[in-house]
Amino acid sequence: MFGVVTHGPVWLLLLCELASPARRLFMRLRKTRMRLETSSAVAVALPPPIGDSLIGLVLVNNLIRNGYRPVVFGWVAEHLADWLPGVDVRKPEGHTGAFDTVIELWKTDYAAALSRSGRTLSLDRFPEYSGSKHMVERIVDVATHVLQLRDVTRSNGLVVPAGVMRGRFANRVAIHPTGSHPEKMWERDKFLALSRALMRRQLLPSFLVSPSEMSGWDDVAREGHEVNALPRLGDVATWIAESSWFIGNDSGLGHLASSLGVPTLTLFMRRGLARSWRPGWGPGAVVLPPALVPSAALRERLWKRLLTVRRVMSAFNALQGASAREAHQARPAARRDVDTAQATILPDA
């Protein structure tokens, strides 16, 4: 069916294949186990968001560690191909119906076309992928308990390429003040105030925005702040890797910084989101607004006002101190397997 060997009653497997709603129901009621055929052609279709793709690469890395050779699709992997040694990254064009098994985190608009059967193995159907666990832990659980992989890691396999020097600019703080979800974006004026506070500390804040956002930040550049709009994600990765710290909203670039081992401070609107979506690889911390409002809905509306520049600077100072103490334990820059470190969630008050 999907190029896998499954374990379970035949009637259950047939029913799950015949009816999509029944399939979802049974997969939630029963933990399904399966083993990919080593001889089958396997593809992993990554979703468009940067953070989701970097999390999906954890599965790719684990498949490779266990002897499989998946072909990986998605624009994030394309842009970061030089950072993914040993990963077969391709574009979907020319691969229609080429794979026995196509795995995706959740339904995309291109994955089904890659499958010979027209069906995909969507991880969000499994109970291991649900709940309040961190997203990386969900992938690890799927790899371990569903796909039954034996050699499992939290790392997504990103490696800093030769020619890129980690932490090259000792005073540079990369800042990502935007994102794809406006409700998750801290106020622009506060980011500018944060930049000025960092400058007073003899640090070099460097804003990163997308090329399409640059017109809205021209005035900031004219005021003397450094603003960069780099065209490719690989260029952004280089800029972040050669910085010494990263500060940003709950967005994909925080996950990228964490993947590269750059100490990362992430601004979240509420604790529940931070538990599941905090950057989960390199050293880092999460800063939240103080818990002054009882309602979750109200906290989401007011978090930008409640989270002060002073609070973010205090969290950054703590991160600086922690990363300095851990610097002597860093692995060689040419090959860093960021595997076990997780972000700290700072207290609400």
TrEMBL record:
Gene Ontology annotations of biological process type: lipopolysaccharide core region biosynthetic process
InterPro entries: Glyco_trans_9, LPS_LOS_Heptosyltrfase
Protein name: Glycosyltransferase family 9 (Heptosyltransferase)
Single GO MF descriptor: ADP-heptose-lipopolysaccharide heptosyltransferase activity
Record's GO cellular component terms: cytosol
Source organism: Caballeronia concitans
SUPFAM superfamilies: UDP-Glycosyltransferase/glycogen phosphorylase (SSF53756)
UniProtKB keywords: Glycosyltransferase, Transferase
